[in-house]
Write a structure and sequence with these properties.
Layout lengths: L9 H23 L6 H19 L1 E5 L10 E5 L5 H9 L3 E5 L8 H6 L4 E3 L4 H16 L3 E4 L20 H6 L3 E9 L17 H10 L3 E11 L6 H25 L6 E2 L3
Parallel strand pairs: 1-7, 2-5, 2-6, 3-4, 3-5
Antiparallel strand pairs: 1-8, 6-7
GO molecular function: 1-acylglycerol-3-phosphate O-acyltransferase activity
Pathway: Lipid metabolism
Pfam families: Acyltransferase
């Protein structure tokens, strides 16, 4: 059940303006620069723009594990809380993403996603699923990082839903590493925050306003496990990724309760 709308102060509403301007700036980069740059150039643009977006939203980026910088290729598997997750991952590991086809219809964001290497999956269509699988395998064979959210939907960050195993087949067919990534958001006092959660019938604007009203959010990204080579059975692979991410999130929760906030290592790369 969706909670009652928050009383948003005038200040966060004003901060929506730079968010909108940054989205337009990203659209210009995608339209004018992406077609003329190679993969490394596009990755640098994605990383820089994603960090700018997090800064405008007042979200600090932190990593519990510096091993993230060594994940040069393969399939990234992460839990899903918000559309902001994409910026958090891109700020560290610029990637192509797999998303449901509905995202392509989002104003401006859908246009940006479609021209920033996103692979869209149309639900309920076997032909579309085969086409998306082929695109995923091609991207992985080309040495790119490809990120998926196998829960298929978002949560408030308080639980981990079952993973859809079909999305893991591309990594098995391409014979590339699979990296399980744990993602969470915390408030200034170290407690888990639901402010970025994009759930129920919440609109994009509602979510952005809630984030802007939150106090000093920190996005945590850590490597739960890597599977290289991945197990040959996709259901087994999905189960192992689910278990390692669940364990990493539980460990982060217990650690945040046991020590004061502010001890995480901030990413500055």
């Amino acid at each position: 059940m969706r909670t009652a709308p928050l009383h948003i102060s005038r200040f966060p509403r004003l901060r929506l303006l730079p968010v909108g301007l940054l989205l337009l700036y990203g659209a210009l980069q995608v339209a004018l620069l992406f077609p003329f740059g190679g993969a490394a150039f596009r990755q640098r643009l994605k990383r820089r723009w994603s960090r700018q977006l997090l800064a405008v939203l007042g979200i600090r980026l932190a990593a519990a594990d510096d091993v993230l910088s060594g994940l040069e290729h393969g399939l990234l598997v992460a839990n899903h809380i918000s559309f902001i997750d994409i910026a958090v991952i891109n700020a560290v590991l610029p990637s192509a993403f797999v998303a449901k086809s509905e995202v392509a219809r989002w104003p401006l964001i859908g246009w940006l996603a479609g021209r920033a290497d996103t692979i869209f999956i149309q639900r309920g269509s076997r032909k579309a699923a085969h086409q998306a699988h082929r695109q995923m395998v091609e991207a992985l064979l080309a040495g790119r990082r490809l990120a998926i959210f196998p829960e298929g939907t978002t949560t408030a960050g308080d639980r981990l839903l079952p993973f859809h195993a079909a999305l893991f087949q591309s990594a098995i067919d391409a014979a590339v590493p699979v990296h399980a990534i744990a993602l969470s958001y915390r408030a200034a006092n170290g407690a888990r925050s639901t402010a970025p959660a994009y759930i129920d019938d919440m609109s994009l604007a509602d979510c952005l306003l809630t984030v802007l009203q939150a106090d000093r959010l920190v996005a945590h990204l850590s490597l739960a496990a890597s599977f290289d080579p991945p197990p040959p059975d996709r259901r087994h692979l999905a189960h192992r990724c689910h278990g390692t991410i669940a364990a990493a999130l539980a460990h982060a929760e217990s650690r945040s309760n046991a020590q004061p906030p502010g001890n995480e290592a901030e990413i500055t790369r």
